Amino acid sequence: MAQPKRKAKVANIDYSKVSIQFIEQYVENFYEDAVEKKIEGAKCLLYLCFSHENMEFMLENETLFATMARTIRDDFRNSMNGYLLQVIINSKFQNQIGDTTIKIIEHEIKRYIVKVKEFKQKTEDLQAATGTPQYEEMAQILRKEERQLSLMIKRQEKVLFVAFHLLLNLAEDLQIERKMKNRSIIGLLVTMMDRNNPDLLFIVLNFLKKLSIFGDNKTEMKEQGIIEKINRFIPCNNQLLLQIALRLLFNLSFDEEIRMQMAEQGLIPKLVEILKAPGFRALILKLLYHLSLEDKTKATFTYTECIPLVYQLIIHCPEPIVGKELVGLAVNLATNTRNAERFAQDEQLEELINRAIKFNDTLLFKVCRNIAQFAPSTLETFERYLEQYIMMAQQCGENTDLQLELLGTMVYIHSDRWEEAVHKTNFIEFVYNSLLSGFAEDDIILETVMLVATICRNDDIATILANSFLIKMLQDLLGAKQEDDEMVQQILNTFFKFLFFKPTREIVLHQTQMVSIVLELLSDKNPNIRKLVNAILDHVQLHDEMWKQEIKTRRFQVHNQVYLKLMEEYDKQYPSQDGMYEYYYDDRIQGQGEGIPDDEDFDSDDALFFDNNDLANRIWEDND
């Protein structure tokens, strides 16, 4: 029977006698064949490292580091303890031994895989031997090997901790970090995430966090399935691990695909649960904000406690202005219909509006604006605040951000109370001033244009608008902003609304050039604008016979512009009536053949020509 391998015993060292004067003796121990001698020398050198004076002297000793690097490279398979000590010493000086350290890490990972595979195989063999005479003996041997495997993993994780700690320090140099990336350091780190040693995991996650600030590294981590690996740490009992795991997630969450993976792995409900812990709240809010950027993930928040928690955090915020991360999350969530309705339930919307009004919180007003847009059922609540919104918008002064949110909210208040509010607040004059392009920002102008369309709800308000200069101003604004498709579309939508009421319709059709301008937009490149233009022209034809014929002619010209352009070129080249005939049948023009015989039977040469005006006058529609 083979004798068990004896462990190397190292003599007890009297550290009181360890001195920098004997450094050469300690270095010579690395040349000994006995492993215990090398460990003894490493321990003495490590003891010297605790003195700054000794370290300065040791840095000048080139033989020391060259010898240790050679010993690590050649003998690391023989003694894990010896390697551990030498790596610690090198880490004190951050010597350039990164390449050797990575090789050792790769070796330890391979050894771990082999040992675990062998143990699993023996476990399966034991299960297959159940009920046989050899079962008890095999079980005893397996228990012994399990203890040995556990001890090996424990020692190995100490080595890996020191090795990765050394590489992390070396990675402070970006050039060295790039070399590590080329040596697949990310793959090695992701592999370590399956281990259970807290110290090792902390170093690994910290290293990954450092690497994750670069886009290429994030892509590689994504390919390595890092989100699935990190899922086990959220939440976990170790506060330090949880903190560093959340920071790593935050760095990764700047990538859209990774955000989708986080949602698919079920991280949103877990993060919402951690939001209840004050210590992690600031970081969790940032993470949830990133996750709420995707429309596909917003619906997931509906089925968590996130919205009630966010509401409570906003209402009970000790500062007058709610923090940007918190209110930013609320802004994003409110762009989903179900989320907006959850924000508005149980009189919560009134509390949000009251707080926004009390502190003039612009971003909180933006939350209310999104609720108004995506939750039409809240109209009754916003109606009660209509006059207050109008007064605040008129008193904003230079605070254009606040004014923008107030106007944007009022756009979605489709209420018959506008007539009363307009009379009480002199709102038309305010709208007129907001539309002055030389004094107002484009965003303010756009929201004001949309607001005019909202206000125009009946003949009484239409009469007020018709008696103002707003319609003429909107026409001028359309000419000035013709390069802005969004502005053009909203102005056209407002004029379309004017056509539904007689007072404004009469002004548009007979006292402005709007119909002519709209006709010019028939061939616009934007399909939404073309669709709106056709709707306006259809409505004009119903109410004005004078424009009806011109609209038909223009539509024909736009629809057949290629044909008309070709005809115009022919007319210029062949001004005579028979020019087109000669083009097709004159031998000199064709350059070949004899043309068509004179006895060809034609009713009239004029059959080849058409009058454009005559074509335009025809009815190009199917009539029943």
TrEMBL record:
SUPFAM superfamilies: ARM repeat. GO terms for biological process: cilium organization; microtubule-based movement. InterPro entries: ARM-like (IPR011989), ARM-type_fold (IPR016024), Armadillo (IPR000225), KAP3 (IPR008658). GO terms for molecular function: kinesin binding. One of its GO terms (cellular component) is kinesin II complex. Residues 102-129 form a coiled coil. The keyword Coiled coil applies. This is Kinesin-associated protein 3. It comes from Stylonychia lemnae (Ciliate).
